[in-house]
Specification:
Layout lengths: L3 H4 L5 H6 L8 E4 L6 H9 L5 E5 L15 E4 L6 H7 L5 E7 L4 H5 L25 H7 L2 H10 L6 H12 L7 H9 L7 H17 L1 H15 E11 L2 H13 L7 E2 L5 E2 L2 E3 L8 H6 L7 E7 L1
Parallel strand pairs: 1-2, 1-4, 2-3, 4-5
Antiparallel strand pairs: 5-9, 6-7, 8-9
Length: 302
């Protein structure tokens, strides 16, 4: 049985919510509801007039909805943050929290194809109701496009060889399961790096299937627009691609990290960084292996 506790173990729970500097009557957004751990912690710090809007596009997450009149669940990709804030008549938000990447539930669900540990259909969609699956990507993209995905999103050094192997294999039979993909990749993997390299390949496909980088850019742009002066942005990242985008937005106001200076040469940005990058301690890493690569960044709207 899936419960909120087993669906997803929240990472850097106290630190990320502390970063929001919760105001009891404030309006907050959790763009990655999952098992609801971060949302419950936010609600515990809100007063009777506070509001929390939590996003998740995965229907499975709805089983963890919080029964609280201050809480609104938004079944949507967080890239549409601005649309939904307008829909609900919100004028501004006082803080936004994002725990990026994939939930524990997705990795542990043997049917979704997120993990190379289980033989399952190569799906990988966060939203099972729409979009291309990982199998669709592998069997329809050109060799060059596949190589780009494996290299750019997985930082996989043998991206071109793997793309060629996939295209060659699918001419004999479609690559439709995790076992199929593992078999194609096996000849390119060294035993001592097999798990790490497979993780990179699966990460690349997952990012492509869910358009994660584009969605992240859109969400951060929305957060920049909707946060009030003094509002907080608290974001947990797990790999260098998403961390680079978050860091760039917090330091320069744009995903590319393009620095804009005023007439006097002073760097202009809608944010100021709050504190240093926070990483999980040894105890949390042992309790929750997913947290090992986590980084928390917090910024304040100025």
């Amino acid at each position: 049985m899936i419960t909120a506790e087993t669906y997803h173990v929240p990472v850097l729970l106290r630190e990320s919510v502390d970063g929001l500097d919760i105001q009891p009557d404030g309006i907050y957004v959790d763009v990655t509801f999952g098992g609801g751990g971060h949302s419950r912690e936010i609600l515990s710090r809100l007063g009777p007039k506070g509001r929390l809007y939590s996003f998740d596009q995965d229907a499975d997450a709805e089983k963890n909805i919080v029964a609280d009149e201050r809480f609104t669940f938004v079944r949507s990709n967080f890239r549409y943050l601005s649309n939904w804030m307008r829909y609900y008549g919100v004028d501004h938000i006082d803080g936004l929290l994002g725990d990026l990447g994939v939930s524990s539930h997705h990795f542990d669900d043997e049917t979704r194809g997120f993990s190379f540990r289980f033989n399952a259909p190569l799906d990988m969609r966060m939203n099972k109701r729409a979009g291309m699956t990982a199998a669709d990507v592998l069997n329809s993209y050109s060799e060059e496009r596949l190589a780009d995905i494996f290299y750019l999103y997985g930082e996989f050094k043998q991206a071109r060889r793997l793309a060629k192997a996939v295209v060659g294999s699918r001419q004999e039979k479609p690559v439709v399961t995790t076992a199929d993909l593992n078999e194609v990749a096996a000849v390119l993997l060294r035993t001592e790096r097999e798990k790490k390299d497979l993780a990179r390949v699966y990460q690349a496909l997952r990012i492509e299937v869910n358009h994660e980088m584009d969605a992240l850019r859109d969400m951060l742009q929305g957060a920049t627009e909707w946060l009030r002066e003094g509002g907080r942005l608290s974001v947990i990242t797990y790999h260098s691609l998403e961390d680079r985008i978050v860091k760039n937005v917090m330091k320069s106001g744009n995903a590319e990290g393009k620095v804009v200076q005023d007439f006097y040469g002073r760097i202009t940005s809608p944010f100021r960084m709050v504190g240093k990058v926070v990483t999980p301690g040894d105890d949390e890493q042992q309790r929750n292996p997913r947290s090992r690569s986590a980084k928390l960044r917090v910024a304040e709207k100025i």
